[in-house]
Amino acid sequence: MSDRPPVAEGIPDRLYGRRRGHPLRPRQQRLLDLALPRITLPDPASPRAAFGIAPRELWLEVGFGGGEHALELAARHPDIALIASEVFENGLCSLLTRIIPEGEEDTAPLPGNLRLWPRDARHLLAAMPDGALDRLHLMFPDPWPKARHAKRRFVHPALLPLLARVLRPGAEWRIASDDPTYQAWVEDVMGAQTLFARVSRQDAPPPDWPRTRYEAKALREGRTPLYWTFRRA
Questions:
Q1: What residues act catalytically?
Q2: Strands (DSSP E) along the chain, which ranges?
Q3: Single pTM value for the model
Q4: Treating both helix axes as pointing N-terminal to C-terminal, what angle do 89-99 and 68-76 enclose, rounded to 10 degrees?
């Protein structure tokens, strides 16, 4: 499948920076070569068909980082199908290491309710059917603090119509950020649109919120995360 299905005009040119950090170890390379293709969502146009369950709902997490939040969501909600999107190879390896035993990269059973999307999330969204998603998670996205990079922010006016198309009416969108620039950006962008209604904004996560190492680090370093819940109008 092409990594570049059509994306609507005006949508940010890309949402991510580098794809790889430190050089990959042999185990990590095997995970990418053997395990990742097995768990990658094959066809965004028919997303529910890719899972080993008949899901009650379909959720998406964009930019899952080390994968703790996505894996906890999948474990807590076995009747929910979750697509977890991430392009950073070290993050993909971090998640795969937690579910694939060493030496079983091409044979280990896969979670029935989890599939990955290791490509640009914009192209996943563009290929999905109308109203396909019941919930969207955006956890501590890259703030792209420089003004010339603001177009890469996931919370972006040009991206909102696409998100509104893919999220069914009443679907929930959760956002968290510890960056003051991004926090102000979310307030400005979401305050100027009518596609999503704000349900809450708070400085403590919802009761069912899986914590992550990044979140704990932000708190240790004195940054105050904000947590928003929006609902598709």
A1: 142
A2: 57-62, 80-85, 114-117, 133-139, 167-177, 196-202, 226-232
A3: 0.90
A4: 40
Cα→Cα distances 17→63, 136, 155, 210, Å? 12, 21, 16, 25
Q: Are 42 and 119 in contact (CB under 8 A)?
A: no
Residue 92 backbone phi and psi in degrees, to 5: -60, -45
For residue 14, tell me if it sits in a domain: no
Domain limits for position 90: 26-232
pLDDT digits (tens, 9 = 90+) for 75-110: 999 999 999 999 999 999 999 999 999 999 999 999
Asked if residue 143 belongs to a domain, the reply is yes
CA angle 78, 172, 73 (to 5 degrees): 25
Lowest mean pLDDT across 73-87, 133-147, 151-165: 133-147
Please report whether residue 11 resides in a domain: no
Positive or negative torsion for Cα 145, 149, 153, 159: positive
| Total structural domains within the chain | 1
Position 216 scores a pLDDT of 86
CATH number of the CATH domain containing 160? 3.40.50.150
| Within-domain flag for 7 | no
> pLDDT (tens digit, 9 = 90+) per residue, 166-201?
999 999 999 999 999 999 999 999 999 999 999 999
| The two three-digit tokens of residue 92, written as one number | 């993909």
* CA distance linking residue 3 with residue 120, whole number of Å: 7
